[in-house]
Give the backbone structure.
Amino acid sequence: MENNIEMMQENETVELHSDEAKTDRSAKKRKKAKIQPQEIVRIFALGGMDEDGKNMLCIEIDGDIYIVEAGIKFPDAKSALGIECIVQDFSYLIAHKDRIKAILITHGHDDVMGALPYLLRQIKADVYATSFTAEQISKMLKARKIKGIKIRTVKRKETRKIGGRTVHFFPVTHSFPQAYGLGIRTEYGYIVYSGEFIEDYDDMEEAYRGDYSELSFFRNEGVLCLLSDSKGAEHQGHTSPGHRIYDLFNKTLDDYQHQRVFVEIFTQSVFRIQEIIESCIEHRRKMCFYTRDLQDLIAGLEGITDAVPPELVISNDQIDKTDNCVVIISGQGRSLFNLMINIANNEVSDISFKKDDVIVVATPLVPGVEKDFRTMENDIYKREGILIKIDKNVSGMHPAKEDLKMMIFILQPKYYIPFKGEYRMLCANAMIAREMGIPYEDILVLDNGQVATFENGVLVNTQEVIELHEALIDGEENWEKAGVVLKDRETLSTDGVVIMAIGLDSKNQKVVNGPDVQTRGFIYMKDADYITRDITKIMIDTIEENVKEKKYENLECRAEIRDKVQKYLLKSTGKRPMVLPVILEINSNQ
């Protein structure tokens, strides 16, 4: 009896194990037969690679496009030609505007969001930014009279569904308050963009405090690709505390206790502006926020950062009445330096510049404004003012080598793309990734327009290149037309102009005088008489041919002459001057 019971139990056990085994085998078969998700990811930049500014990153997942940043670039002094700024070629985005899910703006600097008005005139898409940056964007669009754009506020530490995909935001420390980095989920791991960040664990206000423990979220989920800021990659160690000007400015206030101190600084260097304010508060020095933009910025920071004691704030008309005040003068680019030149030359109504006044330069020497910066220096020295260049001892708030290593170490990405910076900076960033153990073949140094394509989590191609042409902006409302005008200016400055004039009888289109050829900035025509002969012959032959074939029209004929002469000059001289044919039709009866 007992033996039978034991036998039954044993049989039951055998059957049970057998069923489990069948279940396990079935699960394995299903798992083996399971089709992996098919997904194509394309990552490319429309700006920001091998240049300073014009940052724009595009992340395309199964056709859905996420735009990260939309910045401008300032032209260098040699090629300015009246150009106010340079923006990206939006042709690809315009052609696929129905697939754009979001524009993600990480902070409020011009090289990150300055191109938004030009982009949003061409496409309509929701813009995602933190509250302070969103307010700056709203003001910018309102000033440009751009309507119908939804600006959606995000928190620095949250996960959102955007365009049907998970986007995870994390706070970083940068010179602009409420800056963030982000990751967009794919089936094969997150695509993480670091944003512009530094490691700084000193006590600071919440608006600037980074929280890199948030990166463990991505590490646990898996990181397909990491894109990191490269502008500080050539610097050893950590950026912090070398980014701070607080102690340096304190010393200036200690050294010049009884003199007025003028501080020139970019409006968007908010972290530095707050350091200057904190130093003034500690020294109980009266402050004047000189420009309207700066006054608006300080008002907008209320509730985000500590308030400025109202008893320490003076108005512009009190500057000449207050012996040891600190006058903070903000602006952007060459307009800021031109304002400082005017102040030094006593060309503003509310400041009488004195030779014992101190001017503190708290801005970096950014590309495109070198000439204006030197002119400002010269004019201040001529006025016998005291000039202190505080920025030469300070690092920009971009990640240095150890900051970048920290990001790579925590995230352990499968692929790595250096983003944002001149080519040597991209290469320095790539070498840091190699030092961290990422294989060469998984580190991608891309050009603007070069597409990195991933299929099912594996890099398959970097050969596709989107053809790009920069748009030059001179402040005109019709910016596309302005770009053409600026290209003409560039042609004039490099290859010159050829003007060809001829007079025709208005009745029979026979030549009555000319052609007369004049050139400026092209070649010395007395040493090239054959060119004059050849292009006048082209002009006459083209007119006579059009008249003979009874298809002569003034505008069409001029266009044909221009095309033929330009081709001839390029072949003969290697130059592409602007060619301006003029055909005057004269009434012979007059």
User: Anything to note?
Assistant: The chain has 16 helices and 25 strands. The two ends are 139 Å apart (CA to CA).
